[in-house]
Write a structure and sequence with these properties.
about 400 residues, alpha+beta, Dna Ligase, domain 1, Rossmann fold, 4-stranded antiparallel β-sheet
Amino acid sequence: MHLHEHQGKTLLAQIGFPVPPGRVARTPAEAAAAAREVGGDAWLVKAQVHSGGRGKAGGVRRAAGVAEVEDAARALLGTRLVTAQSAGRGLPVEAVLVERPMETVRELYLAMLVDRRRERVAVLAAGAGGMEIEALAASDPAAVASVVVEPVAGLMPYQCRRLAFGLGLDAQAGAALGRRLPALYRLFAERDLALLEINPLGITPAGEPVALDVKIQVDDNALYRQPELAALADAGQEEAAERAARTFGLNYIRLDGDIGCMVNGAGLAMGTMDLIKLQGGKPANFLDVGGTATPERVAEAFKLILSDPGVRAILVNIFGGIVRCDVIAEGIVRAVREARVTVPVVVRLEGTHAEQGRERLQASGLDLITAADLTEAARKAVAAAGGGPVR
């Protein structure tokens, strides 16, 4: 789950990490009032959307007076912002952050994230703030300093010094950052974060760090024990289909292909998508119905897939372990009838009660395409989506 910039800065302020003075506003009049409250003679008006790259997309504007703040807020609020990270879709701007700029002598990059290979939290730092860390790591890997935190010991002082040295900070700035980093790590661990990125991290003339921008992601699996953070979710930043999927316990992400996928298990879903690509097709979505799928959930999964007008065929790939294939087959039959599916449906069932499931599909009288293995299923789905003969 993503947090807005202003929400992330509130969390940082609660642990004493410096952030620029700012207020959130949802109308132009509120933006003008926020500027007066923040004080100063110049402000940044920043669109609050769940995406990076806002500045390049026109989502961050400078204002030299209260009237300009109000005009900037009026120009942003109610629009949809398309950034390089928003996958081509516009994200609704329902709030802006009015912030007083901070004087800095350097801008850096700092992030904490889960290193799944090491099963540890990694802390990354670089001396080039404001740019995408992926591009920097690719062009100059040595420019990115990193440490891996042992969960029992926590972030150690020597690791903080190593990061400060890697950033080329002087003694004063390095010590100031070192005092702040352990609190950041505790925030990451205690709040079940998946990502905490401060980019850019400014260094003031006094040598103090300040979070000029922050991106925070919370582990969805831990939201049940983070009710305060769960309450900060902004459903308006998500696709309607993805919101509906969560309601029914489905994991759904829309892609730009034409073959809808319905699979039980995230790993199997990824493998299914890979095989579709290998056969020359393009998956239209990632959809994991989970290990305890019911006929009702399968029916809803079909409706989600069909909500994408670009879908030209559907591939159902089920391995019956916990879930029984005959139960899935019942859901497929019900869904095809209820949703009035008009695109070809390829079904591959394997595992618990797979034979009974295939018999249920054959007895339905529906024009379903069955496959004995996953490669055959992917090939038939690609052929069906292209309008060619399915063999």
